[in-house]
Amino acid sequence: MAIVNMKKMHLLGLKNEQDKILSTIQKTGAVEVIDITQQVPEHEVQQIQIHQGLEKELSELDSKLSKLKFGIDFLKPYVMEKNPLLYGRPAVQKEQLDEMLSREDQYFTTLQAISGLEQRLSHLKGEESKINNRIELLSSWENLDIPLEQLGHTEKTEFLPIVVPIKAFEDFKNRLKDRQLSAEVMTIGGNRDETFGLLIYYRAQKSELQDIMKEFSVSVQEFSGLKGTPREIIARDKERLSGIEAERQGIKREAQALADQRFFFEVLYDYWSVVRDKKQNMLKMVGTRDTFLLTAWVPEPLEDKLKQRILDTTDAVYIEFSPPEEGEEIPVMLENPRLVQPFELITELYSLPDPKGLDPNLYMAPFYFIFFGMMVSDAGYGLVLSLLTGLALWKLKLAGQGKKLVELLFLGGISTFIWGAIFGGWFGDLIKLKPLWINPLDNPMAILVLSFAFGVIQIYAGLLLSAYKNIRAGRTADAFMDQGLWIVFLSGLIMLAFPQLGFIAKYVAFAGALGLLLTQGRAQKSIVMKFLSGLLSLYGVTGYLSDVLSYSRLLALGLATGVIAVVINTMARLVGVNAIGVIIMIIIMIGGHIFNIAINTLGAYVHSSRLQYIEFFSKFYDSGGRAFDPMKVKTTYVDFENL
Amino acid sequence: MELTYGQVLALLGAALAVLLPGIGSAKGVGIVGESAAGVVTEDPGKFGQTLILQAIPGTQGIYGLLTGFVIMQRIGILGGRLLPLNLHQGLLILAAALPIAFVGLLSAIAQGRAAAAGVGIIAKRPEELAKGITYAAMVETYAVLALLASILMLFGIKL
């Protein structure tokens, strides 16, 4: 129930058994290999050779994997895939795998063919976009009935296709007329900004004409290499486009025929990625020609089982376990009761605990559970949330953080249901049930006080955990002075709020304050500084005050859910006056409440997390651990059985 | 029925409570949406994560609506029978609407900026989403406090 102790394993084995041993280790998923190559002198020639060999193998594996991945991705649109979330991943037996491996060459020939298909498709795509561009360009010139290759000059005249800004077109024509040039402009077409035309002029006046063209920003349209009238070209192009489409359909049919190969690619991909992981870990080991040395982290509880598994594989190994040395970066693995595990997500998303610190999950979980429900606080919503997430847990094959999140929401739903019953909220005021305790709308102050009380409890818990940490490290005096005195002081201040305790409260608070004043400056050298630091530390009380006030969000968010639910019901009832109205009313209610559940679940998740991160963790939590990342059989598409 | 200044002021309070945080949330959600769209262009798979961040500055608008609704309920406009409020009562209700109105407006925009920066986190390190959300949630605190103040004031006013 905390951070699992890690042991360091040293394994010395024979090179020719390395692969076998590593496969065994990989299947246990209990070993994180440590890179020890840096600890070996660089000039060890053998070492370098071994690694060069490995890296070559790895790069071959990578290219194999990328080919397989390409095949898998390419065939994706042609395969009706069962959703792995619903059906789980297909299982592959060792015999099936061996058979596929024996036919591997065949699969890679298929992959070659697929890559050919891909190239043809991309070639077609390129041609298509070129043609589309040409059609777009020429469609504005469709009225030009001269074959494009005949534009240009004769002995005396020149035919030029021109583009004129629409605003300048009239002026341009007038200018040509004014100058009495032997030139004529015919309008062919145009778009929103430009007019397209054909300019015919006497070649002797070229330079004069070019000046005018420049003045009106007239440009010449190039049709290099095109033959026939625009209309003919467009017709030809359109024909080619349908040809391209037909070719594409043909390629798709070919791909469709290959679709059943995708499963083999997936199996091979997963198999080779497992092999690659193994080889990558070999890079972290050192060895001679015939032996290898592996150093790794192993969780202490798994130590014996792991050793047994390895010894079952081979006798020719030497295994030794040692505790971690000072200053080593130990990976962190958490172990908590089943009920607390979903809450690990909250800590994981913040940061894992320092390997020497405390696992906060057990202490944080009850608070998170209570706060989440209090912020949503509607029994109906809790039911919906728990039913939906329960269904998801039952039907879907979830794993990892996704599973933890759904479990967390399931528990949150239960808490929401309980709080909803306490506050009498059932889809707002839709179902009128008497609250088990109090309706927050009737007496918000009572709930506010309750929120603050939860805050005080959690802050005390944080201080106690911090004190525990100090005591565990042998600093009992620090625990007394840094946490104990604060608890005394804060308790005194809280007691002031109760008139019947007023008499003692003053002395308790005063004793605490005096203690803090005298002890908090103990790290300072001079007596004046000691005193000043002690005095200044009392200012910390504002921090505790704002921490407690922060828990008012428990009331605020709970009220928000309740009132929005009432708003939805009121709006819905406004329209429920006749038959059609009732249907609309039901739609509004369903949509509105779903929206309210969604937005408030998000809010409750965010704000409960925040209360843990900012108010609770800040009191005692040392973060910054690195997750234990063992070498394991990690697959993407299929599950291997008896690999 | 004769209308009173008090009723006008109370309704003005309800209007402000809905109006200003609504503007703020619209703006905040818009800011996040803009940067989220940029990230999703690169990687459409991040839509879900960015959507969570985009929803966060939307809460102020809801808090505003909620406050407005409580006012409407208290002055009886929802039941169709407007209470005959005097000038002071009207001013009290208007004052109670102010915290969420202004804090809602400004905090939603500030939160939109923080969340938009959080979208940047998703772009580079999607596994750190929780930290981006936490930064945005820090801003929300003040909207929650303002909501609380407004609601407590409204429940406290004797009509």
Note down, in words, how this protein is organized.
The complex is a heterodimer of chains A (643) and B (159). In chain A, the strands form 5 sheets. In chain A, strands 2, 3, 10, 11 and 12 form a 5-stranded antiparallel β-sheet that branches. In chain A, strands 5, 6, 7, 8 and 9 form a 5-stranded antiparallel β-sheet that branches. In chain A, helix 2 (45-75) crosses helix 5. In chain A, strand 5 and strand 6 form a beta hairpin. Chain A has 643 residues and is of the alpha+beta class. Helix content of chain A is 60%, strand content 11%. Chain A is built from 21 helices and 16 strands. Chain B is mostly helical and 159 residues long. Chain B has 5 helices and no strands. Chain A binds chain B through residues 349-350, 441, 444-445, 448, 549-550, 552-553, 555-557, 559-560, 563-564, 566-567, 570, 599, 602-603, 606-607, 609-610, 613-614, and chain B through 52, 55-56, 58-59, 62-63, 65-66, 69-70, 78, 129-131, 133-134, 137-138, 140-141, 144-145, 147-148, 151-152, 155.
